[in-house]
Each structure stands twice: as C-alpha cells, then as structure tokens.
Design a protein that fits this description.
The structure holds 2 protein chains of 2 kinds. By secondary structure, chain A is an alpha/beta fold. Chain A has 2 domains: 217 residues, Rossmann fold (3-Layer(aba) Sandwich), CATH 3.40.50; 58 residues, Alpha-Beta Plaits (2-Layer Sandwich), CATH 3.30.70. Chain A contains 9 helices and 13 strands. By secondary structure, chain B is mainly alpha-helical. Chain B has 2 domains: 98 residues, D-Maltodextrin-Binding Protein, domain 2; 230 residues, no CATH class. Helices cover 67% and strands 5% of the residues of chain B. In chain B, helix 3 links the parallel strand 1 and strand 2. In chain B, helix 8 packs antiparallel against helix 16 and helix 12 packs parallel to helix 17. The chains are: A alpha/beta, B mainly alpha.
Chain lengths: 307, 412
C-alpha cells in the first residue's frame, strides 16, 4: 500500500508476535486527515495491540507504523490525545492537580492548563469536584476527567479506545458531542468501539479486524456492500424477470426480496421491473446494519463487549 | 520540551510529596522523637544537678574502718566520718538506721574492693555513698603526695596532642576524618529514609494504570530522571528537618545537655577529600535510586519488589561489617572487592576516603564507575518502564523487555 499523502496515520504490513503467538498479521490501513475512523473487532482481535504499537508502547515485530510520516514519539511534535483502554489517573491527587499536570506535559503553561481544566470541569458538571481527590469520584466522573486530559491540548490526532465504556446514556451523548466538536475543529479521530450506532453516527471509514487480520476496510457503505450490499423489498403483481444486477433471495406470491450483486442504481432496477410489465405496489431499499455485519463476521465468537 | 517536561515532573513529584500530611507526619516523627529525648535529657540533667547540689549541701555522716592506713583521719573527719573498729556493730547500726553509712577500707584498696553499707536512698541517692568513700581515699592520697600536679599525673589525667606524618606531610588525624565521614552518614540516612519511595515511585504509575498516558505524553527517561531528582530534593528537605532539632539543641541547650563545646576550627577540612566524598555520595545515590526504580518498573507490586530490595540493602551495608578490615587492611583483597563492586563501593570508598586510604586514582575509578553505571541503570530503568510497566499485573522478564522485535505484554 502506498502511503496516502493525506494520511495522518499509516500502517503497512504490521505484524506483532508475543512469544510464539502472532496477534496481528500483515495489517495495513490509513487514517486520513480530518476523518473519523472506526477500529472494530471482537475481543482479542488485536485492536489495542495495534494502537499501542502505533504509539510506540510496543515494539512491532514487523511493518511500518507512522503518525504524520514518522514513528510516533512524544517529542515528535504531533499533538496527540490518547484515551487508553486501561483508564487511570493519579488517584491520590486532586482532579485539578492531575489535569494541570498533564496539561503542562502537553505543552500548556500552568495557568493555561488550570484555566482550561476549570472550564472543562464546569462544562461536564464537575466544577465542584476540582479540588476533590480523584479516587473520591465515581467511575463515570473519573472517565470524564480522563477524557478532559485527553483533549486538553487541542489534539490533531485523537485516539479513543472504547471511549464510552462506563458511561450512562446521558453522558455517552455528552461524550459524542465532545468528539464531534473535536472533529469539527479539525481533529482526526481514530476510535475503537463496540457501539455500532456510534460508528454509524460518527465514522467516515472503518476497519474490521478478525484474528489479527483485516476482514473489511473502507467507508461504511463499502463495508455494507461487501457484506450483502443493498436489499430491495418489492410488493408486486406479475413476474419478476431475471437480471444480472440482482438475485431473488425470497419470492412469494406478491412479495420478493432482491439482493443486488453490483453497485447499480436502485432506480434502474425499478425502471427495468416496470418495463418488464411488473405492477409494483411498493419498492423499498435497505442495507445490512453494521451490527448485523459484525454479528455475521464474528459469528461464533459473538462477543460484543470488551476489546 | 524535554527540559520543560523535566521541570514539570520535578515540580509535580516534589510538591505532591511535600504536600502530603503523611510525609510530614513521618518526617516530623523523627525530630519530635529527638526533641522528646533531648527534653528528657535536659530534665534529667537538671534533676541530677539539683540532687547533686542538695547532696553537696547535706553533709553525710558515716563511720569507717581502715585496714590500709591510707585514710587520713583528719580528711575523713572533715568529710563527716567517724573511725570505728567493730565493723559488725557498725553495719548493724546502719541496718537499724542509727547510722547512715559505714565504709570498710581493706588492707589493699587498689586490689580489694571497698565495702560500702548504707541506708537505701534509691538508685541515684545510693551513688553518693560510693562517691564519698572514693573521695575520702583520693583526698587522703592527695594530702599524702602534697602536689596537685603529681596527683593529676597519678590519676592519668595527661592531655596529649599527637602529630603524625604521611609522606613527609603532616597528617590530619582523627579530626580530619570527621568532615568526609559526614557523607557516609548523609548517604546512609537519606537512602534509609527514601528507599521505599524510590522502589514505589514507578510502581505508582503501574498501579494507577497511568503508564499508557505517560508513555504517550513524555519520554520515560525524562519521567525517571524527574523522579530521581525529586527524590534528591525530598531527601535534602528531610535531612534539614532532622538536623533542625540537633542544631537547636546545640545552639540553645548545649549546657543543659552536657554537649561538649565543639571547636569547629580544630576540624581539618580537606577540599579534595570533601569533593571526592560528595561525588561518591551522589554517584552512589544515583546508582541505588536507578536500580530501585528499575526494580519497581518490572515488579507488579511493592511486595514483589521486597526481596530484591533486601539484597541491595545487604550489599550496601556489608562494608560496615568489615569496618575493621577497611581500617587495618585497605589494600587487602576483601576491601578491594568491596571498593570496586558497584553496590558495595559507595560506603567502602567513602570510608576509605575519610580514613585517608583511598588514593586519587582509586577514587577516580570508583567515581567514574558509579556515574557511568548510574547512567546505564537509568537508561535500563527507562526501558524497563517503557516496555515493562505496561504489564500491569505480572512480573516482566528482562528477556522479554530486551527482545528487540518482540512485544512484551499479554494479547489484547
């Protein structure tokens, strides 16, 4: 794969072995600047390992993993916001102390980091907790603090490993709003999640990992097309003609389901049916949801949570 | 950026350590304990002085028998004594409380003990009997000699000043050893107080699951260096806190505590020795700190790190057990091994430096060895932290960490 000049993240032929076990094999993908990229897969498929190798936490066994054209190091100058799967903060320190510390490490002045932190805490309803110790906060509140630490340097690359884990629906919506804000501000977002509605709402492109290999890769439509494509439900009178553009998967007396076999426009199918003398009473199109595709791909594994 | 981050880590580590009530509780326990002991000593000395003054004012009446003939009756009488010949009757009189005390001087008091019988006046009060019995003999002997100087000589009160030479140059003697020995004390004290903090400093990142956030935010070498320097700063603060009551006691309560007046001008401070001592202490501290930080990076908990920690402590203090060898045979094989083995080198070399048996080239080798090894260990510690601390719940093997192209954690 040739690196896309618009790519902020470039992974090529990445392989990762732990001892004698290969966890990720020959994985290649790009994340383009400004897009939101979904990194999907069941437990143990190698998502977190790939992120850690991308960020230099693991040394890859083979392959190229670049952020902004070079291997990632904290000193390289890329503004990174990383929310790891293993959440953690300095639990014995106050919320404001921890946020200010990380803000300073990300290049902000102490005053700027402190001011930003207070504004953020007010926004997420934790203004009165600024001086509380981190371990006195609930799990969800700690998640909010950690998200704040992640986005406080106005990151150009935001990597979120299961960002909504541990959030209730209200706070999940708040989190999604914050991610969308970051996206609008120009951030490139790479997120691992098992919440398919989040992916469909936020992501421009996705990759599905299975057993350390890419199972599918592309826009959501491309992935949907790859797994069944578009389905047309028709109520009719007459005879459905044969066509190279579809297969008739279900045929009843006045009802049929047609699965498209190529990317032909659905309107052309309707025209062909009418021209063939079929009286069409209703004509609806639909695609497999990502969740249906996920279940199809991971079938027997059937694990929808965890990484 | 690295310097900015180093300053940030240093400020964070120092301020949060010094801001903890627990730190000050533990740190202040020592000076408070020292203060309490000093107060008790002052109180005890004041009581003893009062008691002595009261005893001096109260003349003790006693009887005595003298088989030696050394006791001058005039002296004994002046001190409250009455000569008797029947010891049995005199002892019975003491037993019944009719007499306060009876002393039996034997024929040869230099060889045979003087027997003292008295009415019990408690542990400290009873001491007055012994003092008085001895005083009778000493004063009688002084009168017989008739010359206070001869008496002093006979008692062995002879001040001596020794001057020795090394290679034709006047040696510093004992007073010259004291200043460089201070580095041994400081090294030992600071290490003892901070070793647990050194061991757990990186464990905290692991136990709090902060490792990934840290590793993607700053270079682990910067983090570890910041932590090590912060330990230096915290150790310095602790030493100051510990020294404070000692200084206060010396300046304000020297008389009450019977502290001998120290003539600082008599101490010989040899700049070369002091520089070597300081470099050995700093190099040794850096080496031990780096090693403990490295151990902390690969161990999942402080408990698991404990056995390694004990081993290091043994290596560090083993030269103290061989102190006589360090003094008597500094060039013997045992002391040479202790001098050059990195983890026993700091204290051995600091002792030898103070005793004047560490040559310039030996000092140079040990100092270079300590600093080079400390730098190497810090690098290893940083690598262990980078690739080891991500393994949150299990001990990481060196083989795994240093395998260049192989990952180091469980499958995710």
């Amino acid at each position: 794969m040739v690196p896309n000049t618009e790519s902020l993240v470039h992974v090529q032929n990445f392989r990762m072995d732990f001892g004698g076990t290969t966890v990720v094999e020959d994985l290649s993908f790009d994340v383009r600047r400004g897009e939101t990229f979904g990194f999907l897969g069941s437990n143990g498929s190698g998502k977190t390992t790939t992120l850690r190798a991308l960020l230099g936490i693991y040394a890859p066994t083979a392959g190229v993993l670049h952020v902004d054209g070079r291997p990632f190091t904290p000193e390289a100058g890329s503004r990174l916001g990383y929310l790891p799967e293993e959440r953690g903060l300095y639990k014995k320190e106050s919320v404001l102390t921890v946020m200010t510390y990380f803000g300073q490490l990300k290049g902000l002045s102490k005053n700027a980091a402190s001011a930003w932190s207070m504004t953020y805490l007010e926004r997420v309803g934790l203004g009165d907790k600024a001086k509380s110790r981190v371990d006195k906060l609930s799990g969800g509140q700690q998640q909010k603090v950690q998200l704040g630490v992640t986005i406080m340097n106005d990151p150009e690359l935001l990597i979120l490993d299961e960002p909504t884990k541990g959030f209730d629906p209200v706070n999940r919506r708040l989190l999604m709003d914050i991610i969308e804000e970051q996206k609008r501000a120009g951030a490139t977002v790479l997120m691992v999640t098992h919440q398919m509605e989040e992916v469909e709402r936020l992501c421009d492109r996705v990759i599905l990992l299975k057993d350390g290999r890419a199972e599918a890769y592309g826009t959501i439509s491309e992935v949907q097309n790859q797994y069944g494509g578009t389905m047309i439900r028709v109520s009719y009178s007459g005879e459905i003609p044969a066509s190279p553009h579809y297969e008739v998967s279900i045929r009843d007396r006045n009802y049929a389901e047609l699965t498209l076999t190529d990317t032909v426009d659905e309107a052309l199918i309707l025209r062909d049916l009418v021209q063939a003398g079929v009286l069409v009473r209703s004509f609806t199109t639909s695609k497999l949801s990502l969740e249906e595709i996920f279940v199809t791909v991971y079938g027997a594994q059937n694990e929808m949570v965890g990484a | 950026m690295a310097q900015h981050n180093l300053r940030t880590v240093l400020a964070f580590e120092v301020s949060r350590t010094l801001g903890k009530k627990r730190f000050w509780f533990i740190t202040l326990l020592v000076p408070i304990a020292i203060g309490i002991v000093l107060a008790l000593v002052v109180l005890g000395n004041m009581t003893a002085a009062d008691t002595a003054a009261r005893q001096a004012d109260t003349k003790l009446a006693f009887t005595y028998s003298d088989a030696s003939g050394y006791v001058d009756p005039a002296v004994a009488t002046k001190l409250g004594g009455t000569a008797v010949t029947d010891d049995t009757a005199a002892i019975a009189a003491v037993k019944s409380g009719k007499e306060e005390a009876h002393f039996v001087y034997p024929a040869d008091p230099a060889e045979t003990p003087v027997h003292v019988y008295g009415v019990d006046k408690g542990l400290f009060g009873n001491g007055a009997y012994n003092g008085l019995a001895t005083q009778v003999l000493i004063t009688s002997a002084q009168d017989r000699i008739g010359d206070p100087a001869l008496t002093a000589l006979a008692q062995g009160n002879v001040p001596i000043t020794a001057t020795t030479y090394t290679d034709g140059v006047e040696a510093d003697g004992f007073l010259g050893m004291i200043p460089p020995l201070i580095f041994v004390v400081i090294f030992f004290l600071v290490f003892t107080l901070l070793s647990n903090q050194m061991l757990t400093s990186t464990l905290e990142e692991k136990e709090n699951r902060v490792t990934e956030m840290i590793l993607t935010t700053l270079n682990p070498t910067v983090l570890i260096s910041g932590k090590v320097i912060s330990l230096f700063v915290v150790g310095f603060v602790q030493v100051l806190v510990f020294l404070l009551p000692v200084l206060v006691a010396y300046v304000f309560f020297r008389t009450s505590l019977n502290i001998p007046e120290l003539d600082l001008s008599s101490l010989t401070v040899e700049p070369g020795q002091m520089i070597v001592g300081a470099l050995l202490a700093i190099g040794g501290f850096a080496l031990f700190t780096g090693t403990l930080v490295a151990i902390g990076a690969v161990m999942p908990t402080a408990k698991d790190a404990g056995s390694w920690f004990s081993g290091l402590i043994v290596l560090m203090i083993v030269p103290l057990y061989a102190l006589s060898l360090v003094l008597s045979d500094p060039h013997g094989p045992v002391v040479q091994i202790f001098t050059y083995f990195p983890y026993s080198a700091p204290i051995t070399a600091m002792l030898r430096n103070a005793f004047g048996s560490l040559s310039g080239w030996e000092a140079a080798i040990v100092i270079i060895e300590l600093f080079l090894l400390a730098a190497l260990v810090l690098q290893v510690a940083a690598r262990l932290f980078r690739y080891g601390s991500i393994s949150y719940t299990s001990k990481v093997s060196f083989k795994t960490v240093f395998a260049r192209h192989t990952g180091s954690a469980t499958r995710k």
